[in-house]
């Protein structure tokens, strides 16, 4: 863990994490009892925790104790939540080895570099880091945002305003033509992104409404 902090100070870490917390625990006698480094926020869906397992295990023991550990022992832990955890579970369910999945995620989000390029993103990995991750292929847990199709927009409309639409329909004696009137009056308010979606899913209708006819001029 001390080495990780030194790497941070020398800007020898390239990571997708933007936050780092360095937590050191000492006694009043200045005896180090714990050291944990957190990458990422506690609220995020992925966080890396690196801590000194040797200090943790030896806390309260003397060097003469049979359980005393006299070799360096650093533990790396990934904490996944929400969609990131779901994506990792899917990789495991597909039959991938848990070690390969773990190291693949770690390789994607974090690496130690040697300064052999002016652009840190192009720097080579430190040899020790390559030996640690064992050349495991990077594994991204990025979740592709759901495309907001016209069907989804209809579902959102029903969910948010279905009750009001029903009330207005009843107030009009069951007649729903008022919806068409509202649509005609507001065609000029269709956003560029919605218009693009409409063109993608309904090209023929798009040409009818937004082709040579300037709908904004007609309905504004």
**Separate helix tally:** 10
- Fraction of residues in H or I helices: 40-55%
In total, the number of strands is 6
Largest sheet: 4 strands, antiparallel
Describe the structure.
It is a single chain. This protein has 220 residues and is an alpha+beta fold. It has ten helices and six strands, in the order αββββαβααβαααααα. It has helices spanning 2-9, 53-58, 82-93, 98-109, 127-133, 150-171, 177-185, 192-201, 203-210, 215-219; strands at residues 13-15, 20-26, 32-39, 46-52, 74-80, 110-112. Residues 213-220 have low confidence and may be disordered.
Question: Can you tag this structure with a few keywords?
Answer:
220 residues; four-stranded antiparallel β-sheet; two-stranded antiparallel ribbon; 6 strands; 16% strand
């Amino acid at each position: 863990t001390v080495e990780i902090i030194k790497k941070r100070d020398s800007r020898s870490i390239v990571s997708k994490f933007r936050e780092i917390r360095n937590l050191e625990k000492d006694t009043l006698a200045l005896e180090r009892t714990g050291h944990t480094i957190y990458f990422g926020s506690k609220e995020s869906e992925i966080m890396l925790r690196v801590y000194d397992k040797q200090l943790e295990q030896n806390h309260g023991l003397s060097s003469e104790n049979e359980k005393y550990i006299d070799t360096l022992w650093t533990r790396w832990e990934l904490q996944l939540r929400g969609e990131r955890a779901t994506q990792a579970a899917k990789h495991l369910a597909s039959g991938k080895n848990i070690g390969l999945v773990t190291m693949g995620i770690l390789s994607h989000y974090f690496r130690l570099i040697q300064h052999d390029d002016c652009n840190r993103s192009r720097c080579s990995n430190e040899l020790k880091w390559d030996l640690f991750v064992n050349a495991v292929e990077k594994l991204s847990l990025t979740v592709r945002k759901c495309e907001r199709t016209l069907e989804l927009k209809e579902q959102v409309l029903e969910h948010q305003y279905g009750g009001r639409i029903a009330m207005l329909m009843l107030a009009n004696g069951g007649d729903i033509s008022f919806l068409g009137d509202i649509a005609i009056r507001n065609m000029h308010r269709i956003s560029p992104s919605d218009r693009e979606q409409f063109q993608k899913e309904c090209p023929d209708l798009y040409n009818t409404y937004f082709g040579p006819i300037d709908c904004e001029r007609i309905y504004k």
